[in-house]
Amino acid sequence: MNHQLGHPGVVTALREAIQSAEFQAISFRDYMEICLYSEPFGYYRNERPKIGKQGDFYTSSSIGSIMGEMVASFICMQLHNDHSPQTEPVHIVEWGGGNGRMALHIMGEIKRTEPAIYARLIYTIIESSAYHRQQQRILLEEHAQIIQFASESEWFSQTPQDLVYVLANELLDAFPIHRIRYKDMLFQESYVKWQEEEQIFQEIWRLVSSHRILDFLERSKVQWLDGQIGEINLEAESWVSRVAERIQSGSCLIIDYGDTAEELFAPYRYNGTLMCYRNHQSQDNPFMHQGEQDMTSHINFSSCQLTASESGFTHCKLQTQREFLVEQGILQRLQDHYDPNPFSEVSKRNRSIRQLLLSDQMSELFKVFIASKHSLHNEKKVSR
């Protein structure tokens, strides 16, 4: 097995964390957090391009402007159904906006089709990477007057607001996860230690001691096979419940790859869903290229849905990306734009629509989870 070490700065940070830890080992969750988020060389902190041809992976916003347009269409539709005063500000809050393309497409579409809504819009970007914030400022210059940047803690500390639409596009899959194995009728957690002789990071397994993990396993009611490995994303649950506290009315949209708990812990997922991406190549060894490869795992939408309901969201809906796009009228856009010239803007757009709808990778694997709360104006109208 290739154990090529990654960025020296990240490797040093890992070794220092391991040296100062009890048992000279850190949990896989902490290992993943350092690989992805340690300053300044962690994967999401360094200045290497991540998205697109020069990067390591593509996102739905890399494929034309359609995904952003459909999200814009969803938000505008919600606002028309809401019956709140048309003077109230509309808040779109995008987490981890990457290079800013999704924001560009959303604001561009609202400005073009719903200028009255655009006039009420405040677009907040919560982006922890200084490199990405800089990219976003340049790309989104034409919308500068309605954009604000906030840190996670700043946004969470504000009072709840009406008409808040939170967007997390491929955000939760990169939260650090606990890696769990079921062995001899007991649950174990993955830890990482440093092997000085071989100069490698090595995975070891210890009995689960965290009450939160044990509670999660107790709740999930899933049958594990002996030796089966799976991931538990406690951070995703915390994030959903904290977002719920900030939304008085509005919706939270999570666009990501994942599935229900039954699917994620099914026998065919015997080794879990953790994957690493580098230069558009995928592999499942997280113990190499530290800080130089993306690490992700599938989202457990059953746990997101349970948390959303417990946290005050009144309507939850999970659908495939394809179902969401069709519901927002994507086929209408395909039919309305026929052009025989394969190099025209219209043809390129049609190709990107087909790619989002037909590509197995994105259309079925990707899900759109929507959790909503209705405003008091709407509740009164409904209850009459």
Distance between the termini: 66 Å
Mean pLDDT: 88
**H/I helix tally:** 16
How many β strands by DSSP?
16
- Silhouette: globular
Summarize the main sheet.
8 strands, mixed
User: Approximately how much beta-strand content do the residues carry?
Assistant: 15-25%
Oligomeric status of the shown chains?
single chain
Q: Give the low-confidence spans.
A: 379-384
Question: What fraction, in percent, of the residue positions are helical?
Answer: 25-40%
Q: What does the radius of gyration come to?
A: 22 Å
Q: Indicate the structural class.
A: alpha/beta
Q: Main attributes?
A:
384 residues; alpha/beta; eight-stranded mixed beta sheet; five-stranded antiparallel beta sheet; 16 helices; 16 strands; 38% helix; 23% strand; globular; disordered C terminus
Structure description:
The protein has 384 residues and is of the alpha/beta class. Strands 2, 3, 4, 5, 10, 14, 15 and 16 form an 8-stranded mixed sheet that branches. Strands 1, 6, 7, 8 and 9 form a 5-stranded antiparallel sheet that branches. It has a 3-stranded antiparallel sheet with strand order 12-11-13, with no helix packed on it. The longest helix is centred in the first third of the chain and has 17 residues, at 66-82. It is 38% helix and 23% strand.
